[in-house]
Task: inverse folding
């Protein structure tokens, strides 16, 4: 019951966050001193066309009324119609979200597979070359602009070496797998389409490395510091005194305890990967949420911008909630409230 | 097998799959050094066109009015009349074999006689009913390009009639220009749709616009195979096309917004055409093997509007002084690396009525004398400038800085205010700008498409935005209605000459478009209206 109450409280919190985010985004979107009708119809549109457009999108109504209309739509599962694509925002998001989810999962996989062992290696080699190496690479990863990194990665991996494709989710002349989840890797596995699977995986490598580098650096640093803290604990000395192998001491007694703060970071990282793939998606022509958000923002496409923001506002706390739930089970101390 | 080992095996399989050379259905061996992405097989008979097509909203000829949409629609539909190649002054037959403009007293009456035997991609015959349906559909849907029919040509749905299966008669009021309407008909809004097919696809009174959003129902050399949103549009050769068959079986337009990616893909041989290269990228491609560059004309004009309602810009001598002080050659040669024409009139080169007079070039002494004549010595003005790159590849902010420095030489202080284009246009359209730097492209290939907006205050377009209400607008309206092309050109010469020295504009340049091509791509000819005929391209 304690657990159910915990989750319920968090869900109420998420709802409150969504209301706050929707109000703030709505207000900011409508404070921009530019007319979305002009952005959509262009320089040549007549005054009548502008007026008709404003009426169609309720832009001629008072702001509070526009907001209430919008919220009413959300409650019916209707996020409105995109000004730029002229399609339902829900349909646009449903198309773009799986691409971003796939990229973020791949980036997270890179971050976990590389970040945690690097952190452990760095901690156990404290003050020696591997430690310096990991720390320098983490520092670089935390400070490199993604856009620049993406261009370097694509320039090297695609242009110079030709090992991986330069952009998109699948090769030009390979048909995408039949859409079930929208994740190409999963869909091509489900369809048993090896050609599509290989192509989808190859297309994931460079953008996942680019997007995942920052998170790898964060996870490596967090693992290193929590490992260092754990390595100095009494129970580690006790484990060694029992004559256990160093590998078992470090991995079973050390890492397991050091992972608790890392799990928190992984959850936060995943949320930020999902909502922060904007630049990576632009560089790698990845038809995901980030690119959709950029194009929508540039065209003052308020319904689309609001839709993306709300989705991010759901995804981020949900990722955090998942971490907290994991934490709840991982660390018995949290269950005592 | 334990879970642990099966996980390792699964991971190994995934890695192996990722590292395996990409295979393309029907692909031949890729050339050495080529990337694993396919560049053969399907690609050998397909033109791969990399471009930023984020503006694409519909492939329906009654709705498409964006650069990407117009390019694709142009290749999937035919029009009654057309311009051939880059010549935008001589109208040629297309679906109509002949036409006639008759003064019918109260109206103009245009009669089009269709060629016989034409077929849509569906196999249906092209009839006058299809033309009537298509034009009435544009008026009924009333989307972005509809104003060309309803406002410019003042067309009413009931004014379009089929008198027999091969004859279309269109009547339009005497206040509209029949010559201008013919030019409009060359544009994608005049694309003729297969009425039988589209009617069958109508849903909820949408006139088939839901279907035509991402399908085609025309008679052009290509048809739309599919449009994957935010990713690609695939065109396929139309087996029933009545003209010369396209050399390539398909065209794949890939949405690649980042120009560096376009350049990389072109050099690697994955792309045949790169649409959005900067002048610097084009320069970097020079001399590289396997690639070529080309340019095409545009009909855009980059200009500064001077609000004649704001003092001292209400004084014609001040406006002339500002025009006179600008270093146009510096802009074209240094900032744009020659990627533009020095054009100073309001009609771009390439259109009938173009006036090649370009008398202004950084004459500081003359500009100062003009200011003195106007009784002005110290002027401070605000210059509104959009963000991002201007046509031709230079940043708008760099152009603004150049103007600021040129005008400083004659004692005019300019404060630059940079905003998004939408924000700038919101102010500009409300007559709230002082100096506004922006671009203009004609809606249809006729001088009236520029002369009207630039001179007619009542049209609530550019002249209105700059608060310039001048009697020259009457001459502009008269010129639009002249049917004799020689007399019409003479009338436009007089008008453009007047606006050059009296209007509230400093036209800075007419940009050219740059493209990167694989060197085996032949027959690439960019049309200044913003399209190219894919059917004439080989590789």
Result:
């Amino acid at each position: 019951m304690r657990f159910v109450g915990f989750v319920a409280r968090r869900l109420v919190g998420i709802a409150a966050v969504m209301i706050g985010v929707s109000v703030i985004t709505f207000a900011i979107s409508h404070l921009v001193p530019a007319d979305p009708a002009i952005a959509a119809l262009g320089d040549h549109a007549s005054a009548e066309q502008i007026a008709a457009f404003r009426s169609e999108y309720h832009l001629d109504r008072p702001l509070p009324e526009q907001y209430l209309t919008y919220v009413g739509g959300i409650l019916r599962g209707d996020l409105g119609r995109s000004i730029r694509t002229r399609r339902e925002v829900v349909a646009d998001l449903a198309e773009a979200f799986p691409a971003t989810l796939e990229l973020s999962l791949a980036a997270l996989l890179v971050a976990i597979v590389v970040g945690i062992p690097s952190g452990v290696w760095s901690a156990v080699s404290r003050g020696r070359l591997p430690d310096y190496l990991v720390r320098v690479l983490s520092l670089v990863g935390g400070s490199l602009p993604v856009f620049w990194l993406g261009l370097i990665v694509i320039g090297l991996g695609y242009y110079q070496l030709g090992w991986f494709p330069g952009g998109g989710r699948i090769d030009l002349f390979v048909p995408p797998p039949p859409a079930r989840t929208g994740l190409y890797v999963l869909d091509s596995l489900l369809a048993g389409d090896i050609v599509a699977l290989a192509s989808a995986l190859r297309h994931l490598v460079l953008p996942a490395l680019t997007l995942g580098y920052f998170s790898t650096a964060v996870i490596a640093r967090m693992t290193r510091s929590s490992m260092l803290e754990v390595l100095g604990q009494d129970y580690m000395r006790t484990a060694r005194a029992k004559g256990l192998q160093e590998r078992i001491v470090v991995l079973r007694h050390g890492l397991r305890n050091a992972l608790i703060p890392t799990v928190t970071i992984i959850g936060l990282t995943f949320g930020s990967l999902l909502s922060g793939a904007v630049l990576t998606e632009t560089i790698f022509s990845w038809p995901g949420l980030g690119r959709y958000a950029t194009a929508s923002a540039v065209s003052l496409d308020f319904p689309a911008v609001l839709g993306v923001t709300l989705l991010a506002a759901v995804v981020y706390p949900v990722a955090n909630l998942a971490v907290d739930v994991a934490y709840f089970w991982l660390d018995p101390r949290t269950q005592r409230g | 097998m334990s879970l642990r080992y099966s996980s390792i095996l699964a991971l190994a399989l995934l890695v192996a799959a990722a590292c395996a050379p990409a295979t393309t259905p029907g692909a031949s061996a890729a050339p050495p050094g080529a990337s694993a992405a396919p560049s053969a097989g399907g690609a050998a008979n397909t033109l791969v066109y990399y471009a930023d097509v984020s503006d694409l909203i519909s492939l329906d000829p009654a709705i498409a009015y964006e650069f990407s949409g117009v390019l694709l629609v142009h290749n999937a539909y035919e029009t009654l009349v057309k311009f051939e190649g880059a010549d935008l002054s001589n109208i040629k037959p297309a679906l109509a074999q002949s036409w006639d403009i008759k003064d019918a007293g109260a109206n103009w009456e245009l009669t089009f006689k269709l060629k016989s035997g034409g077929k849509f991609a569906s196999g249906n015959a092209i009839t006058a009913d299809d033309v009537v349906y298509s034009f009435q559909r544009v008026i009924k849907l009333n989307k972005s390009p509809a104003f060309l029919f309803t406002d410019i040509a003042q067309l009413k749905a009931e004014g379009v009639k089929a008198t027999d299966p091969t004859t279309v008669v269109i009547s339009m009021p005497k206040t509209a220009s029949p010559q201008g309407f013919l030019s409009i008909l060359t544009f994608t809004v005049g694309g003729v749709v297969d009425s039988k097919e589209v009617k069958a696809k109508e849903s909820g009174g949408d006139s088939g616009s839901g279907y035509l959003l991402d399908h085609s129902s025309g008679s052009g050399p290509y048809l739309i195979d599919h449009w994957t949103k935010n990713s690609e549009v695939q065109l396929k050769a139309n087996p029933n096309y009545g003209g010369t068959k396209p050399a390539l079986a398909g065209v794949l337009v890939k949405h690649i917004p980042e120009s560096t990616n376009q350049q990389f893909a072109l050099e690697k041989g994955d792309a045949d055409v790169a649409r959005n290269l900067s002048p610097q990228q084009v320069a970097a491609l020079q001399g590289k093997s396997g690639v070529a560059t080309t340019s095409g004309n545009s009909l855009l004009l980059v200009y500064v509007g001077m609000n004649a309602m704001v003092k001292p810009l209400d004084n014609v001598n001040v406006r002339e002084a500002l025009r006179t002080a600008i270093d146009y050659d510096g802009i074209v040669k240094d900032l744009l690396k020659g990627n533009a024409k020095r054009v100073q009139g309001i009609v771009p080169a390439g259109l009938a009525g173009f006036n090649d007079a370009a008398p202004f070039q950084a004459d500081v002494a003359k500009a100062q004398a003009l200011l003195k004549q106007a009784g002005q010595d110290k002027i401070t003005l605000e210059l509104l400038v959009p963000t991002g790159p201007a046509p031709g590849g230079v940043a708008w902010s760099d152009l603004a800085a150049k103007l600021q420095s040129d005008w400083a030489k004659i004692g005019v202080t300019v404060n630059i205010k940079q905003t998004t284009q939408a924000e700038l246009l919101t102010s500009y359209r409300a007559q709230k700008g002082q100096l506004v730097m922006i671009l203009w492209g004609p809606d249809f290939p006729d001088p009236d498409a520029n002369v009207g907006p630039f001179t007619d205050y009542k049209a609530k377009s550019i002249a209105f935005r700059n608060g310039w209400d001048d009697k020259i607008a009457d001459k502009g309206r008269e010129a639009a209605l002249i049917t004799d092309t020689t007399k019409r050109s003479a009338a436009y010469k007089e008008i453009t000459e007047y606006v050059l020295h009296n209007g509230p504009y400093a036209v800075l340049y007419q940009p050219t478009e740059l493209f990167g091509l694989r060197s085996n791509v032949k027959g690439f000819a960019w049309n200044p209206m913003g399209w190219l005929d894919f059917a004439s391209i080989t590789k």
User: Anything to note?
Assistant: The CA atoms of residues 431 and 465 of chain B lie 5 Å apart. The radius of gyration of chain B is 26 Å. The first strand of chain B starts at residue 46 and ends at 51.
